[in-house]
Amino acid sequence: MKKLEKITPQQEDFAKWYTDVIKNGDLMAYGSSKGAIIFKPLSFGIWDNIRKIADEKFKEKDVANVYLPLLIPEGLLQKEKDHLEGFNPELATVTEVGGKKLAEKFFIRPTS
């Protein structure tokens, strides 16, 4: 059985508390690249239930779902640069595809 780590009090540091809870609950693991999180089956089940409830509420209010692209061109991202200050150092960048250099950089969307 896995030994639980100390959980930071929520009032002390909310972000650390959240990370402690989801790690101790075996809901996630870190992927091999910075910022990549692997959502384990239990957390995906929780998310699936949240999504189902949200979808029902959206339908009641006649709100449509939308999927956004994963890759955002640099030119479009620059229009929103004021909103990206906190994300900028960690944005994953795509500069070539299939060995061919792209005319414009693309960034992986900073939020899901």
Please state roughly what percent of the residues sit in beta strands, choosing from under 5%, 5-15%, 15-25%, 25-35%, 35-45% or over 45%: 15-25%
Rg is 18 Å
The overall pLDDT, averaged over residues, is: 87
Please work out how many helical segments DSSP would assign: 3
Major beta-sheet overview: 3 strands, antiparallel
Question: Poorly predicted ranges (pLDDT <50, ≥5 residues)?
Answer: none
Give the termini separation: 33 Å
Alpha-beta content class: alpha+beta
Q: Please give the order of strands in the largest beta sheet.
A: 3-5-4
Report the strand count. 5
The helix fraction, in percent, is 25-40%
Total tally of structural domains: 2
Shape: extended
Order of helices and strands: HEEHEHEE
Keywords: Aminoacyl-tRNA synthetase, Ligase
GO molecular function, one term: proline-tRNA ligase activity
Protein name: Prolyl-tRNA synthetase
InterPro entries: aa-tRNA-synth_II/BPL/LPL (IPR045864), Pro-tRNA-ligase_IIa_arc-type (IPR004499)
Q: Explain this structure to me?
A:
With 112 residues, the protein is of the alpha+beta class. It has two domains: 14-60, no CATH class; 71-108, no CATH class. The chain is 33% helix and 21% strand. The protein is built from three helices and five strands; from the N terminus they run αββαβαββ. The protein has a three-stranded antiparallel beta sheet with strand order 3-5-4. A two-stranded antiparallel sheet has the order 1-2. A hairpin with a 6-residue loop joins β1 and β2 (37-39). The longest helix has 20 residues, at 41-60.
